[in-house]
């Protein structure tokens, strides 16, 4: 394959788009010598902001509803994107495939195969929120169902999602038995030296935005307990501010860095300095523990403490050598962290080495090699 058109929900030149995925996916394809035509299918910024703000106020503030209409689910958004798709089909006649990093569209104006690659559908996303679809979401979900039915190939990043979506839609979702590390670190790094640095560190690291607030608050409470025996312990939180977490002046041992952009050199430097120095990475959120940031920490040899959510366990098993599972409330997070903080040097180093080796081949170059080979095999059938 010599030329592919990639459609992403945001600018794929921008590292901040969807956890760096479109940027890294396109870059890996280009490294294979493939010409990549990039098409941004994100919602119109002005209309998106106006629509979402208005209906958020009406539905959530005035009507006290738990959800509200969003612009990307409207027929008007779909009409605008279809105009872009038609232009893309005309602009790139030699493209051999339409690759959508989304399950919301196919290019019906093109005679080339439509391959959809993402994590889970919008219908599954609503389900994961623990609620039923609202009346104003039904048309968009019906559109998504039609897209899923018409796509030539469907890929998912996670094994449990694969099975669930196959049951839901009655179609095959392909999974490559691997995932990827979304890293852009280009500095020097050595596993053994890193393990020694981490062993001497007093830093606990959490990465997650406001959706993971409950997990961050659980970790803060545990670290307060730990500081009775480890007064030098510090907690670094990437993705939220102290205001979001209602921290007080007495919490000066907690450093909240907010969202750190990897496309900003100084913020990227802070992000990786924290990632490479942490003694342990922790995200105790139950349903979803921030898979991407967890495996990135593991790649750089950082032991992890996470809840055993389904897709993580499906990838790495019920017993892990690179950290510990927070299985239930009776297995106190404080106790688990105390065990890691108190590990002998050799045992800690083994845990750090296991973290890296478990995901060492999760590079984008490896993933894209398997992805392209799988597409070729699938198309020949």
Give the tags.
381 residues, alpha/beta, 5-stranded parallel β-sheet, 11 strands, 13% strand
Can you summarize this structure?
The protein has 381 residues and is of the alpha/beta class. The protein contains 14 helices and eleven strands. The model has no long low-confidence stretch (mean pLDDT 95).
Structure description:
The longest helix is centred in the N-terminal third of the chain and has 18 residues, at 45-62. Helices cover 45% and strands 13% of the residues. It is globular and about 65 Å long. With 381 residues, the chain is α/β, with parallel strands linked by helices. The protein has 14 helices and 11 strands. The protein has a 6-stranded parallel beta sheet with strand order 8-7-6-9-10-11, sandwiched between helices. The model has no long low-confidence stretch (mean pLDDT 95). It has helices at residues 21-31, 45-62, 75-91, 122-128, 138-150, 159-169, 191-200, 213-226, 265-277, 291-299, 310-316, 333-341, 345-359, 364-380, and strands spanning 3-8, 35-40, 98-100, 114-118, 153-156, 203-207, 234-238, 254-258, 280-283, 304-306, 323-325.
């Amino acid at each position: 394959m010599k030329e592919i058109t990639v459609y992403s929900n945001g600018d794929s030149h921008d590292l901040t788009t969807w956890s760096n995925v479109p940027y890294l996916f396109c870059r890996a394809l280009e490294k294979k010598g493939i010409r990549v035509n990039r098409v941004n299918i994100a919602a119109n910024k002005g209309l998106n902001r106006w629509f979402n703000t208005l209906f958020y106020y009406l539905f959530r503030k005035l009507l006290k509803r738990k959800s509200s209409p969003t612009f990307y689910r409207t027929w008007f958004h779909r009409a605008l994107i279809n105009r872009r798709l038609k232009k893309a089909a005309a602009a790139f006649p030699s493209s051999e495939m339409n690759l959508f990093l989304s399950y919301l569209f196919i290019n019906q104006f093109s005679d080339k195969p439509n391959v959809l690659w993402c994590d889970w559908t919008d219908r599954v996303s609503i389900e994961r929120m623990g609620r039923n679809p609202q009346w104003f979401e039904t048309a968009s979900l019906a559109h998504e169902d039609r897209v899923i039915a018409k796509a030539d190939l469907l890929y998912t990043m996670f094994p449990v999602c694969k099975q669930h979506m196959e049951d839901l839609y009655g179609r095959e979702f392909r999974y490559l038995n691997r995932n990827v590390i979304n890293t852009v670190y280009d500095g020097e790094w050595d596993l053994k030296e890193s393990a020694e640095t981490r062993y001497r560190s007093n830093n606990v690291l959490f990465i997650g935005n406001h959706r993971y607030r409950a997990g961050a608050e659980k970790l803060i409470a545990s670290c307060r307990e730990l500081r009775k025996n480890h007064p030098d312990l510090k907690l670094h939180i990437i993705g939220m501010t102290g205001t979001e977490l209602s921290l007080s002046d007495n919490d000066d041992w907690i450093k909240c860095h907010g969202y750190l952009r990897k496309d900003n050199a100084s913020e990227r430097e802070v992000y990786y300095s924290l990632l490479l120095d942490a003694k342990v990475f922790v995200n105790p959120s139950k349903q979803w523990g921030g898979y991407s940031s967890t495996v990135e920490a593991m790649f750089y040899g950082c032991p992890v403490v996470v809840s055993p959510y389904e897709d993580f366990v499906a990838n790495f098993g019920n017993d892990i050598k690179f950290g510990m599972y927070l299985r239930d409330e009776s297995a106190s997070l404080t106790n688990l962290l105390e065990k890691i903080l108190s590990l002998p040097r050799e045992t800690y180093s083994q845990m750090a080495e296991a973290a890296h080796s478990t995901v060492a081949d999760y590079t984008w170059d490896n993933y894209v090699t398997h992805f392209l080979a799988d597409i070729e095999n699938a198309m020949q059938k």
